Amino acid sequence: MIKYLVPIGLFAALVGFLYFGLGRDKQTLPSPLIGKPAPIFELTRLDDPSKTFSNREFAGKPYVLNVWGTWCVGCRQEHGALLEIARRGEVPIVGLNWNDDRQQALSWLQQLGDPYVVSAFDGEGRVAIDWGVYGAPETFLIGADGKVLKKHIAPITVQIWEQEFVPLLAQARAVSP
Amino acid sequence: MAAELGHFALILAFCLSLPQAFFGLAGAHWRRPHWIALANRAVAGHWVFTLFSFACLAYVFNQNDFSVLYVAQNSNSELPTFYRFAAVWGAHEGSLLLWLLVQATWSLAVVAFSGNMPQQMTSRVLGVLGLISAGFALFILMTSNPFLRLWPAAPDGRDLNPLLQDPALTIHPPMLYTGYVGFSVPFAFAVAAMLEGKLDSLWARWVRPWATVAWMFLTIGIALGSWWAYYELGWGGWWFWDPVENASFMPWLIGTALIHSLAATEKRGLFKSWTLLLSITAFSLSLLGTFLVRSGVIESVHAFASDPGRGLFILSFLGICVGAALGLYAWRAPLFRSNAGFAPVSRETFLLLNNVLLVAATALILIGTTYPMFMDAFGLDKVSVGPPYFEAMFLVPMLPLVFLLAPGMHAAWKKASFESTKKILGILLIVAVVLGIAIPVVAYGWNGVMTCVGLIAAFWVAGAALVDPISRWRKGHSLPASIIGMSVAHFGLAVFIVGATTVESYKEETDLSLKPGQSAQHAGFEFTMTKIEDVAGPNYEAVQSEVVITRDGEQVAVVHPQKRVYRVQKNAMTEAGIDAHWHRDLFVAMGEPLGEGAWSLRLQYKPMVRFIWLGAAIMALGGIIAACDRRYRKRVTANEGVPDAAGAKTA
């Protein structure tokens, strides 16, 4: 009567996988974008709705894309680290202001300091969807060839920057466009 | 105070689910009428305390008691009263309490409508339902207590997620849960039958209305969710193959298979162990959906705040419940042999194909939903499985299913000859082919074979669904509610297919920028933005534009799409401006301000999109009608033969 044992066997396998899924470390969950060209976007600038910004402007140059919003507690937490990374000037940081209020976002940058060379305003969250963002803050490293090299979910720290991003910088710059 | 009372009532509700489980199962096993009576009382007590607990939570929301953590997280003093009530199930903890209340209500309904069932069967069913209630109550108390205090109290709340501040979405979760939890009743019946070692046509007759009603609620719940996504997310899509949507769709497909398999079990005593397996699977998939949505195993746009501790609890619960049921199945199912035979061409064959195809569709969706996780488990690349996979794979089992439906409805039990129905089905098919090609071509233009195939299938099913009740009615034969219900539900499916096929084939979308005073042509209509103004709602500010839609110089509609920003959570929400018409929607959603008064707008023309939800509503209506059939209410004693069920005597 093996056939009557099939359902419970399949079910046990499923539960096993689900159990594995629970223990899985979300931080190291690879993004499907890694190694692929970063999605191109064109959005209005945060500081000036009449001007647009596109990441095409960074073609041939490495940059970091940081997804943030004033509503996000983790973003406030990582802000100091971002300012420090920006001060070192190893690579420019582009902000993607996600699902936010323009005025609030601007006053946040005024109060806490602005680590971004430019911030794009993604009020609808469409670009964030293209980039596979599922929660702010998220930080991407994009190489000179326009490919995504690294994605970090959750607040970034200077330590994480040094250990996980800096070793990739040479590669990010080296790749000829 | 109310929060503590609610918490206490919840503990009592948990305590009462234990005697419901114990006396229900033990009373039936050792045949003790007193114990069975106690189980019935425990059901009532459990329900009263769960309701009281739920009422307490609603009360603290109404009182804006921000010293309760859950209220502070999900409400706000500016939130309108109606949404303050709906906020009770606006997040994880409260929605579980709603789940428990629905679960308790189903148990109560089993007590109320069990007049035609032997006491022992009812008692076992209540026992199993008691175990499930106990599990959920424990889950709430241990990991997700909505009554926890926040000290010091928050001055104001963080507000209900603006996405949920919408009428359709406030009734969507209760409907969905009623469906999900409703499948616990067939599950309990299946376990009870396996414990008893007896499964006959009467059993199938008892289960059928429960399965149908649960299926009906799930249909409504899914349709409401789809309708909400259509107008609230601002994208104008009606189904996204999101893991959370799939989680509700899989039990629906299995539930549909179960309803059909139960028909064969009742009428012919066939597919017994298969019906048992489907009963178990439908509820397992409901639990699995809950697990996927709440454990953080799968990322989704509208997954609940995830917590691995909760995930582990649900997974253990799922493992125990379903593992025990399937273990019981492995042990007992060999008892339930069917010895009734049937010819290769018969209604039984068609029902079997229906089941195989529905199960295949469910398996494809389950694979697509969990695939990224499996790949990760094997250390392979993360692959994203998107709508293209689901759309392509889903059609493979669905097309034959729909085309088999028309002959299946007209096939006789045991051996079908189609002698009497061959002609009418043939005529209907020819009419369907002519209409299915002519209508889209004349109305919208040629758009490939698949459009016509979809419409031909829909018209054939619609015709075949109506032929039988009409001919019975004209001949003056009796027309039982179950036949009307079946025809109505199948007709609803046809309506749905017309909507889905047409909108997917002929929708027209465009993104453009407009300033007040400018206009644009789209899909034969002229859209003119006349003004942009600021408006304020009770708890949001909005930019509203007025768009006048004209056709050939005549005004068709004026719509007012809005871009809202909710004051507390600050997320921007799109309220689409929709001009709804029976055969098309014109959909205008505001995008981004582009400076100098210009806004990006998304214009969409959606032909027949209303038929999608109309079809679902008709299917649900068919479900209610079928569940109201008189024979489900007839009192039959267990040893009485059933005239139309040959299989009953063999069981």
TrEMBL record, chain A:
CDD domains: TlpA_like_DsbE (cd03010)
Record's keyword terms, sorted: Cytochrome c-type biogenesis, Disulfide bond, Redox-active center
Pfam families in the record: Redoxin (PF08534)
UniProt-listed PANTHER family: THIOL:DISULFIDE INTERCHANGE PROTEIN DSBE
Entry protein name: DsbE family thiol:disulfide interchange protein
Source species: Steroidobacter gossypii
Compartment(s) where it occurs, according to its Swiss-Prot or TrEMBL record: Cell inner membrane
Entry's family note: Belongs to the thioredoxin family. DsbE subfamily.
InterPro entries xref list: Periplasmic_diS_OxRdtase_DsbE, Redoxin, Thioredoxin-like_sf, Thioredoxin_domain, Thioredoxin_ResA/DsbE_sf
Membrane topology: Single-pass membrane protein
Primary location recorded for the protein, binned into one broad class: membrane
Thioredoxin domain residues: 32-174
Upper lineage: Bacteria, Pseudomonadati, Pseudomonadota, Gammaproteobacteria, Steroidobacterales
Superkingdom to which the source organism belongs: Bacteria
TrEMBL record, chain B:
Bilayer topology annotation: Multi-pass membrane protein
Domain Cytochrome c-type biogenesis protein CcmF C-terminal: 315-630
Domain Cytochrome c assembly protein: 89-295
Localisation per UniProt entry: Cell inner membrane
Alphabetized UniProt keyword annotations: Cell inner membrane, Cell membrane, Cytochrome c-type biogenesis, Lyase, Membrane, Transmembrane, Transmembrane helix
The organism's place on the tree of life at top rank: Bacteria
Transmembrane segments: 6-30, 42-61, 96-113, 125-142, 175-195, 207-229, 249-265, 274-292, 312-331, 352-374, 394-412, 424-442, 448-467, 479-503, 611-628
MF (Gene Ontology): lyase activity
InterPro entries: CcmF_C, Cyt_c_assembly, Cyt_c_biogenesis, Cyt_c_biogenesis_CcmF
Protein's job: Required for the biogenesis of c-type cytochromes. Possible subunit of a heme lyase.
NCBIfam families for the chain: nrfE (TIGR00353), PRK10369.1 (NF007691)
UniProt record similarity statement: Belongs to the CcmF/CycK/Ccl1/NrfE/CcsA family.
PANTHER family: CYTOCHROME C ASSEMBLY PROTEIN-RELATED, CYTOCHROME C-TYPE BIOGENESIS PROTEIN CCMF
The protein's name: Heme lyase CcmF/NrfE family subunit
Source organism: Steroidobacter gossypii
